[in-house]
Amino acid sequence: MSLSESEVQDLLDTLVKRHYLRTVSGFGNRVTKYEQRFCNSEFGDLKFTPAEVAIVTTLLLRGAQTPGELRGRAQRMHEFSDMAEVESVLETWLREKMAPMLRVCRGSLASVKAAICICSAMIWIH
C-alpha cells in the first residue's frame, strides 16, 4: 500500500469528523498527534482490555494474521506473556464479544490458531 501524505491527512480528518479519533495537543508538539476513540471512551459501547486493544489495532493495520504473528506485531502495545494469552483473548472475542464482527478465516471456531479477519460489519469503517 502506498499513500501520499495528503491521502493520509484526508483519512485522519474524516475519522476526526466522525469522532473516531481526536487530536491531542501538547506544549511543544511538532506534529499533530491522534488518539483513538472507538473503544474505552464515553462515545462508544466497546470496552477493551489493553491486550484486546493491541490485537484489534494490529488486525486493523495488517489484516488477517495467525496468533503468533499477532503476538509479535502487537508486542509494543501490550506485552503478552505467552501464546496462551493471545489465544485466550481471541477465544474470548470469538465466544463473547466480537462474534458479529470477526470471522475465522481458516480452521474452526474452536481452533483459535486460525487467522482472524476483520469483517466489513465493523461499525467504525462504514
TrEMBL record:
UniProt cross-references to InterPro entries, sorted A to Z: DUF480, WH-like_DNA-bd_sf, WH_DNA-bd_sf
SUPFAM superfamilies attached to this UniProt entry: Winged helix' DNA-binding domain (SSF46785)
Residues spanning the membrane: none
Protein name per the record: G20.3
Signal peptide: none
UniProt organism field: Klebsiella michiganensis
Domain of life, per lineage: Bacteria
Cross-referenced Pfam families: DUF480
PANTHER family hit by this protein: UPF0502 PROTEIN YCEH
Gene that this sequence comes from: yceH_2
Gene3D superfamilies: Winged helix-like DNA-binding domain superfamily/Winged helix DNA-binding domain
